[in-house]
Structure formats: structure tokens, C-alpha cells
Write a structure and sequence with these properties.
Number of domains: 2
Shape: elongated
Low-confidence stretches: 104-117, 146-154
Structural class: alpha+beta
Distance between the termini: 59 Å
Strand content: 15-25%
Largest sheet: 9 strands, mixed
Helix content: 40-55%
């Protein structure tokens, strides 16, 4: 008779779920919200334990499994525009991992087993923890090399823009192809979605969508008084645009992952800067050096 220890059962499934949630987010190019992933993984571990408790066998029903997986993904990825994509990746990775466990079992492995749809092990808890740490290290190394965002081979970081007593926090892609610079200081400029940066401005100075699309017409109205030194036009070139203009604003400070970088020019994009909403700003590699 196989003896299953609740603490090992919970910890093993929580660790596996955490790694799968993390891997799905990395593949989708999403920010790594590790605390939320840990909460989702804890929910998965609790569900694995509940299935084996007396009187709760009904939780192994496929509908209950689907509901549990959906709740775990909402807790981990809720609020993301790529919730469906991350959910599909998570399910695919879970199936692949489960298939690997079955394959190991067929080859005679005895360390990790699959029962009632959850993972359990007869190994010592310390061995389980060590194995999980090794798996995490391997996953991290692999994804750092192979799963960076396909648009520029960069990474996603949190940035905070401050203007007076107002601030906004955005997810930014480190874009090595971003060559926009402040013509005055020569420093790299940040590109941010205009709508996402609206919280930086008081209502009477907040650029509307029409202002972002026609910055030359908006500048005389917005760049007056004390705002004269704030707003400016920033020329740019891109595929299909030989000579374009962006409305730009000089903010008081830029913070990258909590580290201050001083004043910076922020170009306000009239369109989303990412194809799936995974980030709302672009920063050059020089911004983080």
C-alpha cells in the first residue's frame, strides 16, 4: 500500500505548479508576478491534498479539475490581456510534464508518480526540495536563453514615471532597437503609450487621442505657461514612416525596478507599443545601464 504524506503532497504539487505558471508567463512574454504565481501554486497544492481527503473524492471529477485550473490561472494571471494565451500555454506545459512523468514511470523510474491527476512522491522531503531547486535552476537558465521576447530579445521590467506629484507605473520592454534620443541632452528617450501615461497630467493638460495623432497641432495649446518647457515635438523614423512626429513630455524622474534614473524625455505613442498588451512602454538598453 502506498503511503502519501500530506505535507510532501502539498509541497510537491505547489512547486510543480509554480514552475509551470512561471514557464507559461515567460513563454508568453508577460511580467513575472511571482507572488501571484505563488498564491496560484498554493491553491493547486491545496487542491491536490483535498482530492485525497476522506469524503472529497468527488473533487477529482473533470469539471472540478477544470474549475480548479481556471481559478488558479485567474489568481496567477488575472488582469493580463494575454490571460487566454497564458492559460493555453500552462495547460500545454502541464500535459507535457505529465507525459514526461508517465514516460519515466514506464522506463522504471520510481521517484515521482502520478495519481488521481496530481503528483506525489515517496522520496524524502529534502530530496524533493533539492530536486525542485535543480529544476527551477534549469528552467531559469533555459528560458533566459530561449524564451526572451521575440520582438527584440530583451526583457520586461517595471518602470515608474514621475511628473510633479503624479506618477504612473508601466511594464516596459528593454528594446535594443529603440534609438530615440532627447535632442537637447542626447539621452535615450522612453516611449510610452499615451493613454497609459495619462495619469501624469492634470485634466487641462492631459493629451487627448487626437492630440497624440496630431502633435504639431496640439503643442501650441498644451505647451503654454509653466508647461512650455515640458512638452515638445520629437521627430522619429520607422518602417513606413520617413518623417514622423511624437508628442513628448519631460518627466521629473524615471525609476527602473525601483532605481532612480533622473529626468527623462517620454515620447507619447498614439498606438499600443506591444502586439498583445504585455507591456506599455519601451526603454533603450542605455536607460538601464
Amino acid at each position: 500500500m502506498t503511503v502519501i504524506y500530506i505535507d510532501t503532497l502539498f509541497l510537491l504539487n505547489a512547486l510543480v505548479d509554480y514552475l509551470l505558471l512561471l514557464a507559461a508567463a515567460r513563454l508568453a512574454g508577460e511580467p513575472l508576478r511571482r507572488i501571484r504565481f505563488a498564491l496560484g501554486a498554493a491553491l493547486g497544492g491545496a487542491y491536490a491534498v483535498a482530492i485525497f481527503l476522506p469524503g472529497l473524492f468527488f473533487l477529482s471529477h473533470p469539471l472540478c479539475r477544470v474549475a480548479s485550473a481556471a481559478l488558479m490561472m485567474v489568481v496567477s494571471y488575472g488582469g493580463s490581456r494575454r490571460l487566454l494565451r497564458q492559460g493555453i500555454l500552462f495547460i500545454a506545459l502541464t500535459c507535457a510534464f505529465g507525459g514526461g512523468v508517465v514516460a519515466i514511470g514506464l522506463l522504471g523510474g520510481t521517484g515521482l508518480s502520478l495519481g488521481r491527476g496530481v503528483f506525489y512522491s515517496a522520496l524524502d522531503l529534502k530530496v524533493v526540495l533539492l530536486s525542485a531547486a535543480v529544476c527551477y535552476g534549469v528552467l531559469t537558465l533555459v528560458f533566459q536563453r530561449l524564451a526572451r521576447h521575440s520582438a527584440a530579445g530583451g526583457e520586461l521590467i517595471d518602470i515608474k514615471l514621475k511628473l510633479g506629484d503624479r506618477s504612473v507605473t508601466l511594464t516596459a520592454l528593454v528594446d535594443t532597437g529603440n534609438t530615440l534620443t532627447d535632442p537637447v541632452s542626447g539621452r535615450p528617450a522612453v516611449v510610452a503609450e499615451g493613454e497609459r501615461a495619462a495619469g501624469l497630467f492634470p485634466r487641462d493638460r492631459r493629451p487627448a487621442s487626437s492630440d497624440l495623432r496630431d502633435p504639431a497641432a496640439a503643442l501650441p495649446r498644451l505647451g503654454t505657461g509653466e508647461w512650455r518647457s515640458r512638452f515638445r515635438l520629437l521627430p522619429y523614423r520607422s518602417v513606413g514612416v520617413d518623417r514622423g512626429l511624437l508628442l513628448a513630455v519631460r518627466v521629473d524622474s524615471l525609476e527602473l525596478d525601483g532605481r532612480g534614473r533622473g529626468p527623462v524625455l517620454v515620447a507619447l505613442s498614439p498606438t499600443p507599443v506591444s502586439d498583445g498588451g504585455g507591456y506599455q512602454a519601451l526603454v533603450g538598453a542605455e536607460n538601464i545601464m
